[in-house]
Amino acid sequence: MDLHDFYYDLPQELIAQDPLLKRSDSKLMVINREDDSISHKHFSDILDYLSPGDCLVINDTKVIPARLMGEKEETGAGIEVLLLKNKGNNIWETLVKPGKKARPGAKISFGNGLLKAEVIDVVEDGNRLIQFTYDGIWEEILDKLGKMPLPPYITHELKDRDRYQTVYATHSGSAAAPTAGLHFTNELLKAVEDKGVKIARVTLHVGLGTFRPVKVENIEEHHMHSEFYMIDEAAADIINETKKNGGKVISVGTTSTRTLESAADESGNLKPCSGWTNIFIYPGYKFKCVDRLITNFHLPESTLLMLVSALYDREKVLSAYKVAVDEKYRFFSFGDAMLIY
């Protein structure tokens, strides 16, 4: 398939720059795959589309304040470091701007020396391996010095960093939020459980590769970034039991979907596991575990839009996106949501 097959025209003013005052007040476009109908709801109406015996799968990763503003010790020149992957022993794979100032051996100071770092290698895509040194607790230092790594299309400053976290964020490690989950409140999740719907927690640490554009015309030649995921025994048991009893597995977001489809066997069953996945889901893919999807509206020609098109139908998805544009839905990370069922 060609990259341009996933293009659509989006007015800039529909890109949401700020989260709504209340998470669940966002709009919800509901697509019924049986009759291709489209309904316009609010996210709190999601309860109407969940049934007792179903399972809602959420990604409980937590975004770390991964943007660090420092200066080169030798010259005092400003330098920005974005944490991507923890390699262990205080070594991180990072994205550094400007890269030309970050050759191996370069030393960087953050927060007047509260945190120090040395570039030790240049790796794939020009990313840098950096060794950090500090006194104290890493999480506390990062919380003090770091900023949330908002996507490049969000230009407004985030006043409350918790709004770029789901209410159930637990395991630190993401450079971007699993944004479909941002619509849930604790009250709404309780109402989901009270209805007899099980909630299964999985973890996938979202990398910045999720925003990396596809640069090849033939999408099958695209190389997906890898991300770390975990599924524990409790989540695997809930999901397996749901499928066994005929319930529906509703995935919250493309990250939960990629986790489940990476770990499931051909019959859709799961075992507790962890590892790295670079699964690329695009039209023609046969889903093994996921039955329904809650997701946001994604960038044109993105791998996320391709995943959504694999679950439904590319032309019908793009038609629904045109409706969303006409109806002034809010797009991308802080935008509105879609349910495909």
In short:
The chain has 6 helices and 17 strands. It is an alpha/beta fold. The strands form 3 sheets. Strands 2-1-17-16-14-3-12-13-15 form a 9-stranded mixed beta sheet. A 6-stranded antiparallel beta barrel has the order 5-6-7-10-9-8. The protein has a two-stranded parallel sheet with strand order 4-11.
Overview of the structural elements:
The protein has 6 helices and 17 strands. The mean pLDDT is 96. The chain has helices spanning 138-145, 186-194, 233-244, 253-263, 303-311, 314-326; strands at residues 27-32, 37-42, 55-59, 61-63, 67-72, 78-88, 91-97, 107-110, 115-122, 128-134, 171-174, 198-204, 227-231, 249-252, 273-277, 292-296, 337-340. α5 crosses α6 (314-326). By secondary structure, the chain is an alpha/beta fold. The strands form 3 sheets. The protein has a 9-stranded mixed beta sheet. A 6-stranded antiparallel β-barrel has the order 5-6-7-10-9-8. The protein has a two-stranded parallel sheet with strand order 4-11. It has 2 domains: 3-63 and 160-340, 3-Layer(aba) Sandwich (QueA-like), CATH 3.40.1780.10; 67-145, QueA-like (Thrombin, subunit H, Beta Barrel), CATH 2.40.10. Helix content is 18%, strand content 28%.
CATH structural class of the largest domain: Alpha Beta
- Main beta sheet: 9 strands, mixed
Content of β-strand: 25-35%
Reading side by side through the largest sheet, how are the strands ordered? 2-1-17-16-14-3-12-13-15
Q: Tell me the structural class.
A: alpha/beta
Task: Provide the low-confidence segments as ranges.
Answer: none
Number of strands: 17
- Output the radius of gyration: 20 Å
Distance between the termini: 25 Å
Helix content: 10-25%
Mean pLDDT score, rounded?
96
CATH names the topology of the largest domain as: QueA-like
Reported CATH architecture of the largest domain: 3-Layer(aba) Sandwich
**Count of individual helical segments:** 6
Query: Which word captures the global form?
Result: globular
Compute the number of structural domains.
Answer: 2
- Taken in chain order, the helices and strands follow as EEEEEEEEEEHEHEEHEHEEHHE
CATH superfamily of the largest domain: QueA-like
